[in-house]
Design brief:
The complex is a heterodimer.
Chain A lengths: L5 H8 L5 E5 L5 H10 L2 E6 L2 H9 L3 E4 L2 H4 L8 E7 L8 H11 E9 L4 H10 L23 H10 L2 E10 L2 E5 L5 H6 L2 E8 L11 H4 L3
Chain B lengths: L4 H4 L3 E7 L6 E2 L5 E2 L2 E7 L9 E5 L37 E5 L14 E2 L4 E2 L9 H14 L5 E7 L1 H12 L4 E7 L7 H16 L8 H4 L4 H15 L2 H7 L18 H16 L2 H13 L21 E7 L7 H14 L2 E7 L13 H18 L3
Parallel strand pairs in B: 5-6, 5-9, 9-10, 10-11, 11-12
Antiparallel strand pairs in B: 1-4, 2-3, 4-6, 7-8
Helix pairs in contact in B: 2-3, 4-6, 4-9, 6-8
Classes of the chains: A alpha/beta, B alpha/beta.
């Protein structure tokens, strides 16, 4: 969960003055950044009361609630972007949550730790213990991550939900994001955490979105 | 300027606004009354008239939000939120607190004089609703020369008024803060109120509501009503912590004196309440909250009440141990606000003090209100 340079990537992706919902917004660091840098109309959803109080004191519009239950009450296409940063793996029903994100918003940005990373695989293979890595620092008995998945797993779920992967990047602490092809098995080994930029299929293609060079700084 | 104005070091004003016969309050029931609204203000209206905050009181509250109560001498019911350096700072905001219509502290109600007869209205006063209370507030706000309020704030019944403001006057509202409240009264809420009303009406001194002209008061009945209601304002853990099974004296009386401290406490609550409140007002105001169901008046869909309030900034607060207006009711409001596309914030504050927490020193509530108002003030361009 320590990999937070995904914020920088999200900041690049989001259009100025757009409507943004940050699901699992914590103490509102990303919302504040987006509000300040991109003048977005930002809303947050956060499960912990203490975090919500911090957000309110910072002047952010945040609702205490649960991604599993409370997304259902938002109207369709109420936002330009829904952001789920390092939260999907902590939800009870990730498939439902992902579907809801792309009902509520035109675009979704989802980041999560990749359980297919070689360190994770090696930890389990060599030690026979649940892996503890930079991206997954907590022991199995205290982790909030109840639905971990690999890059390949998530890519398959996107296909299953008929979502379009507009862009994908590997994230690694302290390094710039690296655009990747999520279908390549090698990336599933190399990426410590990943960022997916998604939209619904069956709708007209993405707006003239920023060129890839802008997207991932490369 | 009142005597304590200097102590508060804020400009404190107020009075009773008497609307002429040409401007009656038209009620939801179809009746109309000559309107008087008693109010207090703190601070000064700025040149743009953009810094006005309306503070709405709970069931038995009044306009003395930050001033000593004239009967009890106790500090104002929200004096920990209103004052220099506090979230509602009179140096920054022009704060208005009214006595709700139906009340007994100077606004039109069953104990005020019916101009047509020269006698107290009693039960001839028409039944009023939350929407009627809000309409009277809107008339006062307009009469004070304010087109648009910076904020409407209230707890409990005051929170219902906040929601009604958002439904009825969204264009006259910049932000709305609803604390420990609900968008409707549940069967349980109505049931408790009915116990209170029956206690009043069972008092022989109630005299069919005509007690004022007969020179008596149904104090026993009103006290019992308050005792029953007071239990709903506290949580079981708070009562247990405060009183437990502690006795008043050594040993039991083997009779029906107030053996337990909690009995004595409730009796005191009841007895002191009758000094400052009117029994008929209690009937009318409890009835108004029982009739309240904001969804019902909007096609059965609560979100419909807020469709014109998308530009209003909302903050909804609830308390974990409030079983009178529990968090489920606040969530109901928040989901409707989200469904309507309004800008809503919501937090459930951890407290074991029950419904009354909104009147008590709750630092998390204070900081949430402070943060919400500060960001709204920035958006409104208030210095």
């Amino acid at each position: 969960m320590s990999v937070r340079e995904d914020f920088r990537e999200i900041l690049r992706l989001v259009r100025p003055s757009s409507r943004v919902l940050d699901v699992g917004c914590g103490e509102g660091d990303l919302l504040e950044l987006l509000t300040r840098e991109k003048q977005v109309d930002g809303r947050g959803l956060e499960i912990e009361a203490a975090n919500v109080s911090t957000c309110l004191a910072r002047g952010l519009a945040v609702v205490q609630g649960d991604a599993d239950r409370d997304l259902d009450h938002f109207p369709t296409k109420a936002f330009d972007y829904a952001i789920l940063s390092q939260t999907l793996q902590a939800t009870r029903n990730p498939r439902h949550v992902l579907g809801e994100l792309l009902r509520i918003a035109d675009k979704a940005v989802v980041t999560f730790p990749n359980f297919g990373h070689w360190r994770v695989r090696l930890g389990l293979l060599i030690d026979g213990r649940m892996p503890e890595t930079r991206a997954l620092p907590e022991p199995w008995w205290s982790t909030p991550n109840i639905h971990l998945c690999t890059l390949a797993d998530f890519n398959a779920l996107c296909a299953d939900l008929d979502l379009r992967v507009e862009a994908c990047a590997a994230l690694s602490a302290g390094k710039p994001a690296r655009p990747i092809d999520p279908s390549r098995p090698m990336e599933n080994m190399r990426a410590e955490a990943v960022l997916f930029f998604l939209s619904r299929r069956g709708e007209e293609a993405s707006e003239p979105s920023p060129p890839r060079g802008d997207l991932f700084g490369g | 300027m009142s005597a304590d104005g200097e102590a508060l070091s804020v400009e404190e004003n107020g009075g009773t606004y008497v609307f002429g016969a040409d401007r009656p309050l038209v009620l939801e029931s179809g009746a109309n009354i000559a309107l008087e609204v008693a109010y207090k203000t703190y601070g000064r209206l700025n040149a743009d008239r953009s810094n006005a905050v309306l503070v709405c009181h709970a069931l038995t509250g009044d306009q003395y939000a930050a001033s000593p109560h004239p009967t009890t001498g106790k500090p104002g019911w929200w004096s920990h939120l209103i004052g220099p350096g506090k979230p509602l700072d009179p140096a920054r905001y022009f704060i208005i607190a009214t006595n709700s219509v139906g009340g007994c502290m100077g606004s039109s109600g069953p104990s005020s004089i019916n101009p047509a007869t020269g006698k107290a209205w009693g039960l001839t006063f028409p039944v009023i609703t939350i929407a009627d209370m809000v309409r009277a507030q809107a008339m006062l706000v307009e009469a004070l020369g304010i087109d648009s309020l910076f904020a409407v704030i209230g707890g409990s019944m005051g929170g219902m008024q906040v929601l009604q403001w958002a439904a009825d006057y969204p264009e006259r509202l910049f932000s709305a803060l609803c604390v420990a409240s609900a968008a409707r009264h549940t069967a349980q809420n109505i049931a408790f109120h009915e116990v209170g009303r029956q206690a009043i009406m069972a008092d022989p001194d109630w005299r069919g509501g005509d007690y004022a002209s007969l020179g008596v008061r149904p104090e026993k009945g009103l006290a019992v009503a308050r005792m029953a209601a007071h239990i709903t304002y506290l949580s079981e853990p708070a009562l247990q912590r405060k009183f437990g099974r502690e006795l008043q004296r050594d040993g039991r009386s083997w009779g029906f004196d107030a053996d337990f401290q909690v009995e004595s406490y409730l009796r005191h609550q009841g007895a002191s309440f009758v000094d400052r409140f009117d029994a008929n007002s209690y009937l009318y105001i409890t009835r108004a909250t029982d009739y309240f169901d904001l969804a019902e008046t909007h096609g059965g869909v609560l979100a419909n009440a807020f469709t014109k309030a998308r530009e209003v900034r909302f903050c909804v607060l609830s308390f974990t141990s409030d079983w009178l207006y529990p968090t489920t009711e606040s969530r109901h409001i928040v989901r409707a606000l989200n469904a309507a596309g309004a800008r809503a914030s919501f937090v459930e504050i951890e407290s074991d003090k029950g419904h009354d927490a909104f009147l008590l020193d709750e630092p998390v509530m204070d900081s949430a209100i402070r943060g919400f108002l500060a960001s709204a003030a920035t958006a409104r361009g208030l210095a």
